[in-house]
Structures are given as structure tokens and as C-alpha cells.
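Recap from last week: sequence in, structure out.
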Amino acid sequence: MFVRGNPEKPGDRVEPGLPAFLPGAELQAKATRLDLARWIVSPTNPLTARVTVNRVWQAYFGLGLVETENDFGVQTPPPSHPALLDWLASEFMRPGGASAPSQRWNLKALHRQIVLSSTYRQASARRPDLDAVDPRNRLLARQQRFRLEAEAIRDNALAVSGLLDSRIGGPSIYPFQHEGVLNFRATKAEWVMSPPGDRHRRGLYVWFWRLTPSPYLTLFDAPDAVTTATRRLRSNTPTQALTLLNDPVFIECARALAKRLPLCRAEGDPAVVRAAFQLGLGREPSTGEMNLLIEALAAQRAEFSSSPAAARRLLGDDRSPEHHVVEQAARTILAQIGEHTSEI
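Predicted C-alpha cells:
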């Protein structure tokens, strides 16, 4: 050590090691990085398993059992369910456990264990009886309600619309991005949009400029990739709603979803609404939802019938007959409702 940080005044010699207060530090005379790796996954070190299962829990419920997922110190808030955290961590480490019969540290088994639990499978509908007792739902009397992460919102819209390209691997892609985003970079860069087949791939493959990220990602609270992020904050702003309604990417998805809906008018609007709900939410609409969306579809159909030019502008290069364009435009508006409700 240097006395007061001065390299010209060397102090006591310090060898590699672990702080004495950490458990399970069984090291040789001179510790190596291999010793550190063994200590990290040692059964006598509970910290690694607890932090891991807490972050997995956070991914499914919005908050971890320990709310400060990046700090397990003695002055941080205690776990909301300490016994559950201990049990999950011990099961995660234990070989031959019920959820991981063949190996320790089985993440797949941990995910399965959580998603098959009755806690995870609860409805997320608000319960007025909990407002006074547990306003933050820390006792998990219902499922948490939170929207998808930035990249997954786009992926979800592509999946619902049928446009998602699920290929694995390959080079980065350049989906639609508004002009001018890269204009003020210190070094020049150009965003050349990928062809249709590539630009519909998952957000995992989108090229990321660290200092000039996509405004869409920033708007939906994606980390800046400059500092480490163990949890994403979720904001709720009018600009986000306007983006989902007006951004060319989501309009393209709505057009594609509209084309997946039943074509035969003889089946009636209920069949159209039911198909949109199944594709967007994976369930049947309630009576109230059905009536509301049938009214919305009829209103859009009437509006576009009086203004076919607006219908053609919405559908872009569609050269179909006027009656078909009017119907597809009305269904595109309906698709926007069904598509983006699924992203909440």
C-alpha cells in the first residue's frame, strides 16, 4: 500500500486475498484468480446465489425480493420475503434438488420454477382492497403490472403482426430511424436502413451507437450502454403513446396485423375483433371490450369511407380497389389498438 496514495512512500505489502468478513475464504498461501472463481461458486458463499435469484425474480415481478438488487449491504432494505429468498438460493445451489436434479446453478430450472408458481400465474388486475394494505404490492397478492423493455416492445409488435424474422445470429441490422439523429456526432456516421427481410429481426441485433443511441430506445428507458445497469427504470409519458401510434415502424406492424385478420365480411366484425384480441393478447375479449372495439371499427370504416384518400395515405402503396382500401385502413386502426395493448 502507498502511504496516503503516494507511490514514493510504500507501506505494508498486500497479497491477493479476500476481506476477512466474507464467508468461505479458504485460500492457499498466495491466492489466484482461480481461487476467487472457486470462492464465487462455493457452497459456503451464499451471496452469488442470492444475488442471481433476486435478479431473476426482479425480471418477472418488476422488483426483486431485495429491492436494491445492486446492493446487498447491511444498511439496505431487508428482503420482503427472506425465507423465500433463502430457499430459492439454496435450491439454485443444491445438486440433486427437485428443480435441478442433475446439476447446480441451473438457470433454466430456476426460470421454470418461478413461472410455474401460483404467485407468477396470478392476474395483474388492480385490486382496490389492497390499496391501503399493500399499495406497492410487495406481498404479491396479485401479479405486478409493468410494460415491456424498449427492445422487446418493438419485437412484440413485429411478432404480433407476423413480420418478426426469428433468424439467430448474423451481423447487426439498421431498422428505420428518423433522419438527423447522427448529424451532430464528433465523427461522421451514416444510418443506411437494412432491406425489409433484415430490418424485421429482433432488437438484439440493432446496431447501437453508444453516444448517439436510437431516440426510440432512449424514449422507452433503455440504458445508455455507458454505465452498468442492473435494473431499468420504467417511465410512462404521452410521447411514448404517440410513438406507438405514429412511428413508421409501428404503423407498418399495424398494417401487417390488419392483413392477418379474417378477410370475409360475412363473419362479421366480432370475428375480426376476436382475431385481433387473440393475436395481440392471447385471450378472448370481454363483452365490454368487444362492444367498444366493434364501435371503433365501425366509426373508422365510416370515416375512411368519406375520405378514401386518407385511407390510401395510411396504407401507403396499396393499389387495391377503394372498398378494400377503406376496410384495410379501418382494420389497421383497430390493429394499432390490439397490437399496442399487448405491450402494457
